[in-house]
């Protein structure tokens, strides 16, 4: 009993320290947005969210980039994970190492490489028919260059999430059952395996969305203004309380989304267990 008591006290201490580590900065940030001295408590920063200039274009750009990144990550990783699981399990290590390479490349180094490539293309593609495509890829309304950078940055966590979801399934049994009922291999994968991978796909989408909304370095150096860059620029321009209020609202929305995904995953797990 004494050992169990020490374990519980240890867990409680860890949870308390972790809670203070996260909640104290959030609490002081919230106080900064509502403390309008010398007038005192005020919600003006939150009322100005809907009128502050530049917010909605920046947020729209980030959401478009997030949607494009999620789609490309799905197109790249889902076929790879399924193929490795069903056809060549020995290649899993190769695929994993390839997807985790962005973790060992600093973001600033990645951005410097992208800048060098863009500079080379600008110098050498001008006389060619590809120059117009090169310029379109840097369009500020939807920069494909930034989209591709986000795809590379999202690969490590996205692969881990999808691979864990795939390994939790008895894929071969599901595939054989579907084929015994007359389904082709492709139809069995689409109609049976992918629906069972829904939780992992949702988690991948959430992680990718959070990455794109919070990424600053690459977008700032390349000269684009998505959501995170707009917040930093707003602070520099003296709009601190409003931009911080936007950050808090986005953080709360992210928590709500995570909570909804967690509840949905638990309910699906219970339903599958009952069946």
Structure in words:
- The protein has 275 residues and is mainly alpha-helical.
- It is built from 13 helices and two strands.
- It has helices at residues 2-34, 44-47, 55-86, 92-100, 107-124, 131-136, 144-167, 171-180, 185-196, 198-214, 217-222, 227-236, 240-274; strands spanning 35-36, 40-41.
- A two-stranded antiparallel sheet has the order 1-2.
- A hairpin with a 3-residue loop joins strand 1 (35-36) and strand 2.
- Helix 7 packs antiparallel against helix 10.
- The longest helix has 35 residues, at 240-274.
What is the terminal-to-terminal distance? Answer: 39 Å
User: Which bin fits the share of residues in helices?
Assistant: over 70%
The radius of gyration computed from the alpha-carbon positions, rounded to a whole number of angstroms, is: 23 Å
What is the helix tally? 13
Q: Overall mean pLDDT score?
A: 82
Q: What structural class do you assign from the helix and strand content?
A: mainly alpha
Largest sheet: 2 strands, antiparallel
Enumerate the spans where pLDDT stays under 50 for 5 or more consecutive residues. Answer: none
**H/E order of the elements?**
HEEHHHHHHHHHHHH
Using DSSP, what is the number of strands? 2
Amount of beta strand: under 5%
The main sheet orders its strands as 1-2
Question: How is the secondary structure organized here?
Answer:
Blueprint: H1 2-34, E1 35-36, E2 40-41, H2 44-47, H3 55-86, H4 92-100, H5 107-124, H6 131-136, H7 144-167, H8 171-180, H9 185-196, H10 198-214, H11 217-222, H12 227-236, H13 240-274
Antiparallel strand pairs: 1-2
Helix pairs in contact: 1-13, 3-7, 3-10, 3-12, 7-10, 8-9, 10-13, 12-13
């Amino acid at each position: 009993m004494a050992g169990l008591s020490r374990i519980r006290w240890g867990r409680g201490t860890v949870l308390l320290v972790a809670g203070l580590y996260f909640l104290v900065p959030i609490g002081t940030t919230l106080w900064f947005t509502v403390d309008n001295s010398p007038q005192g408590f005020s919600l003006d920063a939150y009322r100005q969210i809907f009128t502050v200039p530049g917010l909605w274009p920046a947020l729209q750009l980030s959401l478009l980039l997030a949607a494009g990144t999620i789609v490309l990550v799905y197109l790249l990783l889902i076929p790879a994970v399924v193929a490795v699981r069903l056809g060549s399990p020995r290649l899993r290590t190769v695929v994993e190492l390839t997807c985790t390479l962005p973790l060992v490349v600093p973001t600033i180094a990645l951005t410097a490489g992208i800048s060098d490539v863009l500079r080379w293309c600008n110098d050498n593609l001008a006389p060619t028919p590809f120059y117009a495509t090169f310029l379109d890829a840097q369009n500020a309304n939807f920069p494909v260059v930034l989209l591709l950078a986000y795809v590379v940055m999202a690969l490590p966590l996205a692969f881990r999430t999808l691979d864990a979801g795939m390994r939790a399934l008895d894929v071969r049994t599901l595939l054989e059952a579907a084929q015994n009922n007359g389904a082709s291999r492709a139809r069995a994968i689409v109609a049976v395996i992918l629906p069972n991978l829904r939780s992992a796909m949702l988690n991948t989408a959430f992680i990718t969305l959070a990455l794109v909304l919070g990424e600053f370095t690459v977008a700032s150096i390349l000269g684009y203004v998505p959501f995170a860059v707009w917040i930093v620029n707003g602070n520099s321009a003296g709009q601190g309380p409003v931009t911080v209020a936007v950050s808090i609202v986005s953080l709360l929305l992210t928590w709500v989304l995570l909570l909804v995904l967690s509840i949905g995953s638990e309910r699906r797990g219970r339903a599958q267990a009952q069946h």
